[in-house]
Design brief:
Length: 288
């Protein structure tokens, strides 16, 4: 046995002795075994392809519902596009509502909405794959399509609710002033995101995975996304600063793709951690 192999075995024994380290290694190994990085890339791609159609539907519906309340409409839009740090203003200026009326508007909204269903399919495939649900036991057509469209609607309504209540919390925060108002805003967003992730995971994952097992992942995902949102300005700002000189106007596109991929990766890492915990898949050897 050469020195490198002895060192690897010593490190393996050490990580298996410490439960917290063994758990982290097991999550990393399962992420690698499932090729979850590739699944995250697919989710990011379909998210990018679906983003503008969904934003188009969102802005159009918002104009219809809140057309007589322009201040509230602008507040919801600002809160929504704030989910994309740094590049949010560029996205907001690029998306406009559909100009049709009546039946043409309804048809346009339905076709645009259906065109965005790819992201729902990618999310369903990713979550069922990492949970190890066989293809034969996953929802087939038309149930997978219905679940996917329902997931888009639920998440869309959740984003609207989050934007509205976050804005109200921010308004209340002005009355509270100081750190208390900021904490109230974060707390409201966090609670809503926990429920949103739980519903999203339930709709995207086959029924053989229990709802109870999905909750820890929803909790961790909401916390992770909240942290990512707080750090997003620095992360995307750094990414765009490096890309702008090389790619010019395409830097915003690359920044958006990088942001979506980072979100997808973190979400799948959280789901993998949930699975490792639920099925007690640790400790694992570094060599096997």
């Amino acid at each position: 046995m050469n020195p490198g192999e002895r060192l690897l075995l010593a490190a393996d024994r050490l990580q298996q002795r410490w439960s917290w380290l063994a758990f982290a290694v097991a999550v990393w190994k399962k992420f690698s075994d499932d090729q979850a990085g590739n699944l995250a890339a697919l989710v990011a791609y379909y998210s990018f392809a679906s983003l503008f159609p969904l934003l188009l539907v969102f802005v159009t519906v918002l104009d219809i519902v809140l057309g007589s309340h322009p201040a509230l409409r602008d507040q919801v839009l600002s809160s929504t596009f704030a989910q994309f740090p740094v590049i949010g203003p560029q996205l907001k200026s690029s998306v406009h509502s559909l100009n049709q009326t009546g039946a043409a508007l309804v048809v346009g909204l339905v076709l645009t909405f259906l065109g965005a269903r790819g992201v729902a399919g990618a999310v369903q495939n990713a979550l069922n794959s990492v949970w190890g649900v066989p293809l034969a036991r996953r929802p087939g057509f038309p149930w997978s399509l219905l679940r996917g469209l329902t997931m888009i609607i639920v998440v869309g309504l959740g984003v609207i609710a989050t934007s509205l209540l976050s804005g109200l919390a921010a308004g209340a925060g002005h009355a509270i002033t100081g750190a208390g108002g900021h904490v109230a805003t974060i707390a409201v967003s966090l609670l809503l995101n926990i429920g949103l992730f739980w519903l999203g995971f339930r709709l995207a994952t086959a029924g053989e995975v229990s709802t109870r097992d999905l909750f820890p992942g929803a909790l961790l995902a909401a916390v992770a996304w909240q942290i990512l949102q707080l750090l997003g300005g620095y992360i995307l700002g750094h990414q765009l600063a490096r890309s702008s000189s090389l790619y010019g106007g395409f830097a915003v596109v690359l920044g958006l793709l990088a942001w979506l991929y980072l979100q997808a990766q973190i979400t799948l890492y959280v789901v993998e951690a949930t699975i490792v915990r639920a099925r007690r898949l640790w400790p694992r050897s570094l060599t096997g």
